[in-house]
């Protein structure tokens, strides 16, 4: 007795992957030694058992229409034979494809059923993003300490290390009160450099007035932090970016505010009002006080970050609904969209309303979310949430991709499992979402990519020990080779690559705050900058690398091939496009690897990513070479 199903094989599931509402779906299994096979479906809170009909040989089939509304459908198979009941469901790792037979109820396969009208902005699918922490990027003009929050200071030297000062007496967190002087005019001055990398989208960490250098403890959503500049500076930057065909994404921190803010005002820096000081404050209903004023709900226990009640009408008016709401105001000022901090901690309806509102202001506005897991089936607060159905987000920060690539290059998984992980993401995501994912190797919340990929051992989780981890030349060279190979793969995959400022210049550093050093102007790794420029501009010059079809394959444990192709004059979205084919071979091994590809042996250098170029013979056979 046997049974087999492969969710990524169109012979067994058609169409494969996510599908629009109402799409006819055909599921098949191949089975022997059985007298009955049923299909069990789960949809929201209900389930149904459907008989599968034998069609030919040992193949059983069931065809039905997907639900008429977006959501997640789950399925597995129930087989009867030899007087016993057997189950066939998802693989043990939950990554789809070929499944497994079991005597108990298995994990189901996922079908993401999305809105047929779901569309993400084309500029995301075609884009290249750069993430910038404004204070750490570039400074223009004189530094005025009067523009800094209370008890803050400027570093004397641009190339100083960020400061780690743990304030145990008051809040138990890093003070984050050291500044370097980067500002919006500094970003403007470097647009030529940014554009030379092929970048088309700038994503800024929060730029609004706040007590810290990272600005995730918002003090005033309607005011640019004085240390960064003014709203006029922001509008001028957006206008200049628009002239260059570039866009700007802002960071929205809407799950909490700062305790030192116009709204909470615990420290009294905003006058006599605020939820902490005035029981009759119009902002008091934004917060959850267990006992006013000192016992209040806060984000992850940080008393400097009081949580807001997002479903409060007055808060939604302020952030979303009013004529000059926060989200609308900054879109009108020139932003092309928002990245939502801790999106999985926001109510789904709150996100839906933000997306609808910014699309009213700008039809091609984008909404990106911080979600660290698979955003199609994230479980948050006991609820399975899918952010890719067409009503909430256009994209997420693709940490699952980052994690998979780092696990591969650091020998925690092999090439086959890397391919499985990436194929599972593609299978679960609608194409508009998958091709708009914010694909990254690093961010302000992670150690620098080159430091992780150097793989120098203990990652030193305690903050106080993070700084001493310095790389010698051998470690740096290894991290650099692996980072270049990983970034090459990011730029070969569907999605919007996102470069964390300074990675291309060779910035190293473990976790916060050492991953937030200043851009090393004048001290860049020039070779690395040019390598990144070549990788990024190659992608931007080739439509096939942005919206072409994708095929992944593993060659042994160490080599992955990424094939991108356009056939028939149309890309995956049906847009006219020139037929093309590109193949990237990635070898993680510290030794040369040989593969037989297209009838020819190709030699791959150690820890490398190389494009295999094809030349047509007279007989029409492709010859491949690195």
Brief synopsis:
With 626 residues, this protein is of the alpha/beta class.
Account of the 3D structure:
It is built from 14 helices and 37 strands. With 626 residues, it is an alpha/beta fold. Strand 34 (593-597) and strand 35 form a beta hairpin. The longest helix has 20 residues, at 473-492. The protein is globular, with a radius of gyration of 26 Å.
Shape: globular
Count of beta strands: 37
The fraction of residues in strands falls at: 25-35%
* Biggest sheet strand line-up: 28-25-24-21-18-13-30-29
Radius of gyration: 26 Å
Structural class: alpha/beta
Helical region count?
14
Q: Residue ranges: pLDDT <50 for 5 or more in a row? A: 616-624
Give the termini separation.
Answer: 46 Å
Largest sheet: 8 strands, parallel
Overall residue-averaged pLDDT value? 94
How much helix, percentage-wise, in residues?
A: 10-25%
List keywords for this structure.
globular; eight-stranded parallel sheet; alpha/beta; 37 strands; 626 residues; seven-stranded mixed sheet; disordered C terminus; 21% helix; 28% strand
SSE layout:
Elements: E1 2-4, E2 13-14, E3 19-20, E4 24-32, E5 36-43, E6 46-51, E7 53-56, E8 59-65, E9 71-81, E10 84-89, E11 100-102, E12 109-114, H1 122-125, E13 129-132, E14 153-154, E15 166-167, E16 173-174, E17 178-179, H2 184-189, H3 191-196, E18 201-204, E19 208-210, E20 218-224, H4 231-243, E21 247-252, E22 289-291, E23 295-296, H5 313-321, H6 326-332, E24 337-340, H7 348-361, E25 366-369, E26 378-380, E27 383-385, E28 395-396, H8 399-409, H9 415-428, H10 431-434, E29 438-440, H11 449-453, H12 473-492, E30 496-500, H13 526-540, H14 543-547, E31 549-555, E32 559-566, E33 580-587, E34 593-597, E35 600-604, E36 608-616, E37 622-625
Parallel strand pairs: 3-12, 13-18, 13-30, 14-17, 18-21, 21-24, 24-25, 25-28, 29-30
Antiparallel strand pairs: 1-4, 2-4, 4-8, 5-6, 5-9, 7-8, 9-10, 9-12, 10-11, 15-16, 19-20, 22-23, 26-27, 31-32, 32-33, 33-36, 34-35, 36-37
């Amino acid at each position: 007795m046997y049974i087999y199903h492969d969710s990524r094989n169109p012979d067994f599931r058609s169409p494969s992957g996510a599908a629009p509402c109402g799409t006819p779906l055909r599921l098949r299994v191949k089975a022997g030694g059985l007298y009955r096979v049923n299909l069990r479906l789960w949809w929201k809170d209900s389930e149904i058992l459907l008989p599968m009909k034998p069609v030919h040989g040992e193949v059983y089939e069931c065809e039905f229409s997907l639900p008429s509304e977006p959501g997640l459908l789950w399925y597995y198979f129930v087989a009867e034979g030899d007087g016993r009941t057997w189950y066939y469901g998802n693989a043990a790792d939950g990554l789809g494809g070929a499944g497994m037979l079991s005597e108990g109820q298995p994990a189901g396969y996922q079908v993401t059923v999305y809105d047929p009208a779901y569309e993400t902005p084309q500029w995301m699918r075609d884009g290249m993003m750069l993430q910038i922490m404004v204070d750490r990027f570039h400074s223009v003009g004189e530094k005025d300490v009067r523009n800094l929050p209370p008890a803050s200071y400027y570093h004397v030297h641009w190339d100083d290390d960020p400061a780690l000062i743990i304030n145990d007496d008051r809040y138990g967190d890093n003070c984050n009160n050291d500044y370097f002087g980067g500002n919006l005019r500094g970003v403007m001055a470097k647009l030529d450099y940014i554009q030379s990398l092929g970048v088309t989208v700038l994503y800024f960490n929060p730029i609004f007035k706040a007590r810290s250098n990272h600005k995730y403890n918002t003090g005033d959503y309607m005011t640019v932090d004085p240390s960064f500049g003014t709203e006029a500076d922001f509008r001028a930057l957006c206008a200049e970016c628009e002239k260059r065909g570039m866009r700007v994404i802002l960071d929205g921190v809407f799950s909490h505010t700062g305790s030192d803010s116009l709204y909470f005002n615990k420290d009294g820096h905003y006058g006599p009002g605020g939820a902490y000081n005035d029981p009759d404050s119009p902002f008091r209903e934004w917060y959850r006080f267990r006992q006013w004023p000192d016992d209040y709900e806060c984000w992850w226990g940080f008393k400097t970050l009081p949580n807001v009640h997002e479903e409060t009408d007055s808060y939604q008016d302020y952030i979303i609904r009013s004529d000059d709401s926060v989200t609308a105001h900054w879109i009108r000022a020139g932003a092309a969209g928002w990245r939502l901090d801790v999106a999985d901690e926001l109510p789904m309806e709150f996100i839906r309303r933000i997306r609808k509102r910014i699309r009213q202001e700008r039809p091609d506005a984008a909404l990106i979310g911080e979600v660290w897991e698979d955003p199609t089936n994230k479980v948050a607060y006991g609820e399975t949430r899918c952010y890719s159905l067409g009503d909430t987000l256009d994209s997420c920060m693709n940490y699952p991709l980052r994690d998979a690539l780092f696990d591969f290059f650091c020998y925690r998984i092999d090439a086959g499992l890397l391919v499985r992980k990436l194929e599972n993401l593609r299978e679960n995501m609608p194409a508009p979402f998958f091709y708009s994912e914010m694909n990254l190797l690093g961010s302000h919340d992670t150690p620098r990519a080159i430091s992780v990929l150097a793989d120098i051992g203990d990652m030193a989780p305690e903050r106080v020990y993070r700084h001493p981890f310095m790389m010698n030349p051998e470690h740096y060279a290894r991290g650099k080779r692996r980072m270049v190979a990983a970034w090459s793969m990011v730029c070969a995959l569907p999605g919007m690559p996102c470069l964390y400022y300074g990675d291309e210049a060779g910035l190293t550093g473990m976790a916060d705050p050492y991953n937030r050093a200043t851009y090393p102007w004048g001290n860049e790794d020039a070779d690395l900058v040019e390598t990144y420029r070549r990788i990024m501009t190659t992608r931007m010059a080739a439509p096939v690398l942005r919206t072409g079809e994708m095929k992944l394959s593993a060659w042994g444990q160490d080599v992955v091939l990424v094939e991108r192709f356009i056939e028939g004059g149309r890309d995956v979205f049906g847009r006219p496009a020139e037929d093309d084919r590109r193949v990237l071979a990635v070898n993680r091994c510290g030794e040369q690897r040989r593969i037989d590809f297209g009838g020819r042996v190709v030699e791959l250098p150690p820890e490398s990513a190389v494009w295999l170029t094809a030349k047509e013979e007279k007989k029409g056979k492709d010859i491949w070479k690195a």
